[in-house]
């Protein structure tokens, strides 16, 4: 006969779960709610753990970490763009402040018309033509006078002295007289003349006398044509026969943009442009007003 201990041992070893549950039924409460257990995070794969361990083991103990301290009196600051901290010369600060003021304040049409300059292609064609009629430099004038004096001393007739010179005219007073006498064929005005009162009246005079005029950026570009640092105005009076067609083409396009467009230029105000910060504040207020109106 088998003993009771042997029967219980055989029942425990049996693979049947029902038999096991019948044996241990006294430890389970069927009326108790199941207990929720926190889910465990799966451990990292063995490959990743081996890589981390390998990376940690490859550190060289000879290289010691020395973190830098960039506070005052410690490590030197890294190289960076210090334009914001640069103390610029006074003339640079003034021209930047003037530009900001011209953007913020309302500019009357008489001054705002000088911001409407020729485009790059027309300006390059005009300056290329103007460089053909540059006034002679001091060296060229000295050579011409020496040649004329030598010819006069030899009793010869100087042919070059009788030829009419074709030079571009410069100087505000000289050009004003040429415009009043209607001898100027084209007047070129710089856009950045300071003070502006020197030339602010010249476009009106050109329109009244029927002289084509245009505005070009940078008085230094005009000055380079006549061997000066800067020039307020230039004027074409006479050109050679081979350049008359090119001048006529330029005059026709310039007349359309400036002389014939005078009514629009006289009405158009400039400036009144807010800064980026003010524009963002205004846009934010407008969005808030729009939200309140939608709710109502």
TrEMBL record:
GO terms for biological process: ribosome biogenesis. InterPro entries: eL8/uL1-like (IPR050257), Ribosomal_eL30-like_sf (IPR029064), Ribosomal_eL8-like_CS (IPR004037), Ribosomal_eL8/eL30/eS12/Gad45 (IPR004038), Ribosomal_eL8/Nhp2 (IPR018492), Ribosomal_eL8_euk (IPR001921). Gene3D superfamilies: 3.30.1330.30. Residues 1-24 are annotated as: Disordered. GO terms for cellular component: cytosolic large ribosomal subunit. Keywords: Ribonucleoprotein, Ribosomal protein. Residues 165-243 form the Ribosomal protein eL8/eL30/eS12/Gadd45 domain. One of its GO terms (molecular function) is RNA binding. PANTHER family: RIBOSOMAL PROTEIN L7AE FAMILY MEMBER. Component of the ribosome. Belongs to the eukaryotic ribosomal protein eL8 family. This is 60S ribosomal protein L8.
